[in-house]
Design goal:
Elements: H1 3-16, E1 48-54, H2 60-70, H3 73-78, E2 81-87, E3 92-94, E4 97-99, H4 101-111, E5 119-123, E6 129-133, H5 139-147, H6 150-161
Parallel strand pairs: 1-2
Antiparallel strand pairs: 1-5, 2-3, 3-4, 5-6
Pfam families: DUF4174 (PF13778)
Protein name: DUF4174 domain-containing protein
Domain DUF4174: 40-155
Length: 162
Amino acid sequence: MNNSVLIALTLGASIALSPVSIAGTARLSTQAIKMSSLNLSSQKWQNRVLLVFAPSVDNRDYQQQMQLFNQHQNGFTDRDLVLVQVLATDKSYANRQLIDESSAAKLRDRFGVDKDNFHVILIGKDGGVKRQDATPVQATAIFEQIDAMPMRQQEIQQRGRK
């Protein structure tokens, strides 16, 4: 693969996975939705990633978790936080962009989350696991933890100067 193709693919992935609100304001086109692969390493040093694993959209914990997050859309954007929903029997998404089943399976394997389990995992910009929860968690608790991180403190200072 030549460098220009590789650069185009990398830029496309970065744009597709840039932080956006959970509810989203983008309108769906009449075109077929293209599935993307998700590579966590492409997010390193750019975005924090919040993985929500669940058996399906019908899972009670999953529904409760999404409700808790939908109340705090701006907090996700402010903290460069990408929401990745990894569902066993339904479609999986990264910031409302469909991701392929292979990527979802790799995430389950990497973090050791069984298809029948609900789990929330916060990945920092450095690629490390910062938090794990087996029950729904308040968005504010995640935000407080992120806001206490040294990298986030630097971001707040830098954005305050602009």
